[in-house]
Here is the input.
Amino acid sequence: MTAAPQEQTIAAGDEESRSRGLARLVRAIGLLRESRLAMLGVAIVLFWIVVAVFAPLLAPFSPTANIRPMQPLLSVAPNGGRFWLGTDHLGRDILSRLIYGARTVLIYAPLATLSAYAVGIMAGLLAGYRRGWIDEALSRLGDLVLAFPALVLYIVIISKFGASGFNIILAVTLASGPGIMRIVRGLVLDLSGRAYIAAAQLRGESALYVMLVEILPNCRGPIIVDACLRLGYVVVTIGTLGFLGLGLPPPNPDWGSMINETRQFALIFPYMVVSPCLAVSSLVLGLNLLADGLREISARD
Amino acid sequence: MNPVAPATAADAKPILELDGLAVSYFARAGEVPAVTGVSLALKRGESLGLVGESGCGKSTIALAIMRHMSGSGRIVNGTVRFGGRDMGGLDAEELRAIRGAGIAMVFQEPMSALNPSMTIGRQLVEVLTHHGMMAEHEARKRTAEVLADVKLPDVDRVAASYPHQLSGGQLQRVVIAMGLLARPAVLLLDEPTTSLDVTVEAGVIDLIAGLRQRYGTALVYISHNLGLIAQVCDRVAVMYAGEIVEQGPIADVFGRPRHPYTAALLRCIPVPDADKYQRPLAPIRGTVHLPQDRPPGCGFSTRCEHAVPGTCDRAPIPLEPTQDRADGLVRCVRWRELDLREKPLPPAAFERESTEEMLLTANELEKHYPVPGEGWRAVMGGERRWVKANQNLNFRVRRKQTLAIVGESGCGKTTFAKVLMGLESATGGQIVYQGVDLGALPVAKRDARLLRSLQMVFQNPDETLNPSYSVGTQVGRVVRKFGVERDAARVRGRVRQLLEMTRLPAAFRQRLPRQLSGGQKQRVAIARAFAGSPSVVVADEPVSALDVSVRAAITELLIDIQREHGTTLVMISHDLGLVRYIADRVVVMYLGQVMESGTADQVFAPPYHPYTEALLSAVPVADPTIARTRIVLEGEIPSATNPPKGCPFHTRCHRKLGDICVNVKPPEHRTGDGLHRIACHIPLPELERMEPVFRRGRPAAV
Amino acid sequence: MGRLIVRRLFYLVVTMLLASVALFLLFELSPEAVVVNELGPYSTQEQRQIWLEQNGFNRPPHERYLAWLSRFAVGDLGHSRLFNVPVAQILATRLGNTAILAAFFFAALIPLSLSLGALAGMKEGSWLDRVISFICVLTASVPPFASTVLLSAILVFSLALLPGTSSMMDGFSYRELIMPVAVLVLYDFGYVARMTRASMAEVMMTPYVRTALLKGLPYRRVILSHALRNALIAPFTVIMLHVNWLVSGVIVVEFFFAFKGFGSLVLEASLAKDLHLLEACTMTTVVIAVCTQLAADIGYMFLNPRIRFK
Here is the structure.
């Protein structure tokens, strides 16, 4: 059934316009509510965001303090507190490290994703709207980068420039940018055949205006879904680098490094590795579920 | 036309009966009734048309007959009987035996109805083998016979082809062959020619009418096009808002409608022998209600001119027999007292515009595209092929007039619009507007004044507005951009004026495009185009994607605004009926070249170009009092990449002279005041002896 | 077809050239890093100078690049400092090992993900679809580095069912392959199954499936000969392009299980800044990427008659 919208559906008043952007956001979340899995995703992601923001309040100990090594779960700390998740081989409280680790990953992963999107969107808009040699050059460059397995690219870059937050952002931008560009370019190619783009050209709008104002907002659905997935992937990447010993330099807590540092004790003290594994997996699961929910909504719209 | 199958005693019993069929869709919001209580009976060999605008539930009926409901749809009431058996009581295996063999269905969009990765032959043969009707080799023989019956050339090649290797017209024939293959008693056709060009459509319609007689199949023909129904069917059921509002023999229903909706629909379509000055269209007010918002009582009451509050909008209205004609039914409480015969209207309240001032002059205009090269050899240069989208276009447009450019797909009409608007540059010749050659001036180089004076209305209402911004924002942007107004409050005022001009409520300023119907979007697009008071507006098929009644409303709106603003309108269309109605001057194009041009009166009366003649005869006409010459062209429109030499129309021309048409470019005859031009090898005196295509009088049998 | 292959090969050469220049710029332009890595942080300036001269680092960069290129072009991949053997030798051994791993990976992945995906997509929204879809999201959310640890904790340490390393010290062992393959499949089948599901669900919605049903074909026949055939075109391409993804995946797994394959070689080469080895490894990944792309294109052509018969 194609439903032709009716005049009665919405009573549009003048006062409505101001809060419309906000209303749309609220409605989107309202739509998400219909999918229980999507809500679970939202809950997980929100949980980790809260943990990261309030890390200093939530963490019972300093994440870098060497207190008492190899304490099991729920053991009592010297100051009378508890090591809820035990301590690692250097005597650091695992729960506190987990909480601060959320901070690390939730700072660098979104920053890196954002930076990759900034580059990818601009390149995709240019390639898709301008076409011709710009498209050819950008697409070839993208293909070149994509010919490298992502992790190889990361390893080469990090081993050359060293492990730092900035370099991770740089590496993610380089490795993800071309993929984002491809998506945006495809969307732009599709959208630029629409009549409203021709209408904008016919009233003499500049190329920049057409790209940013007429085209970009209509790409938002697929871009937001992809961003959620990609954010999850960047979380995995940061973890993987830490796991390979290429993560942020110690003693900064980061989930991948925590696993790497303690995996030799996994046989005797499995709790040391299991909790960071669960932490990273749950965050990625949350982002994936959220992306699924958003995809359903945008497919319905 | 419409031969009735020989009636025997056995035929008297209906083969397909619908009794109080009701179908609902179950959405998040709850139950949405799509079809409410439809009863129909179809006799063996009979053909019944189901006509109505989109959303009236006609396709739902077809799928309900097949008992194939999509995920959310369900038959909530009523029965469907096929050969006396209740389809609802069948198990899956019995149902499967009827599908395809007892009742077959032909869908619109033949390309997507066929499996892209299976040959045509296999897709046909499996119908027979899986119904256990015959063995593989016999099935292949039968398939070849039926493919020949649907007049496909080179049957073996077709059977070995994949769908993408055939044209749209050929595929539609394949799909019809697939429907007929198992010799079903009933064939359901759902808009089977919607995606086809008019001349190709005419061929398919003829084929369906012919095959129906040969195979003795009963047809249910679903369409929004009253003219097509009139050509194919004996009886018609007119649907509105999920119910049948009128039913009866075609000539009766269309000749003397009893339901106000039927009468109103007929007043929405142009007749082929009158234009906007002689018989203005009368759009139906309001829009179709969503199923969940249908009014009580008569579904049409809110839009009906004859509705009486308190009488029409109370209780459900029964379908009553009209005693004066055979099995006529009507669902209207006032049908006895109403006289719905079309009254001759007072002549149009406006005069024909007669300025002599030339506004646009196309002079040998030419647009060739390089064919996108394949492989690196093409990139390096070397041989290049060209699509000649426009060749030697010559014509002139006077101020305030309407020029229509008409032709089928691939004729280059849209390319011309793009060149005129500066979205493409001409590769030769000029198109001069106020001393400026527009063909050489791409849109980026046009100044604000020129941009403002040339605007466009686009075809697809769903793509014409940016879905991210409200109506007010989008129209306001044009007002500001063209410097009509700058101050925010005054821009808003101007936007309100423009919405009012296109008969939209001021509150629509706040709406996003997806909150508008197709017709409303097109109104906003018209408001946007006229925001800078342009002197020329190009309208590229502005109404072809709309429903019949909306089409009439938008057409009238365009004409009104054009007259108020003294705008020159360049209308691009494939619909000759519409062109006849709206245009002052007409250019007929075929494969990038002008076949005929002149004033509307000149083009629509003999002498015709043979192509114009064929196009005219392919226009579906609902009015039973109009007779016409039937010309069905052979074959398909050749590809624009590789057009025929000589006269481009020679491959399909029914009046082809011989080799001269194949090899030599036709000369241009000039008649009338010298402005009526026909490019044809046939000598002018012979062309002048042609009969008019349409004749008013009693319906003639062909 | 021939034209496509020629174009791809041309493109392969260009990509390899660009990639080698990029790597060269990254590493060889700053030989100091290499030498520090080679001689240790406490080596004297003098020692470093001598080492650089001995290894030909004092020549201008473009000369060094061209010299490397001309040797590379004739198949001389140079000498690995890290392993002290010719690069070609170690590369061949390691690639062979990873090829075995990859073969088992695909042998498990393809039937598992395609059948689950097709089952889920056949009836979108059914409980089977929901269960499969959720399992897919769940498994795809556990990164390989986490699942190596978790799986080992369960299967190796707690239950002692499988060996915890796959170094194949005592010759080739299938038992040692199980863990790495399991980790890779676990992370990846969800992704491929979901692609398959989406493709299948899309095909089930097409008018031609409706046509097939309404012409009275049995449901089985509609699924097997109309739907599946078209639904598997997209996942096929995805699986082919996964070879490239696999190279990333094996790095983690080989690192953890001490499997002597190509992935651990890449990691070791870059950590040790063994330039010749790293250049050769990267060139190999580019070749793999372009060749699988080519194979995917050719396969796509065979599966899709629209392209096969123009």
In short: Chain A touches chain B through 32 residues (CB under 8 Å). Chain A has twelve helices and two strands. The CA atoms of residues 63 and 97 of chain A lie 5 Å apart.
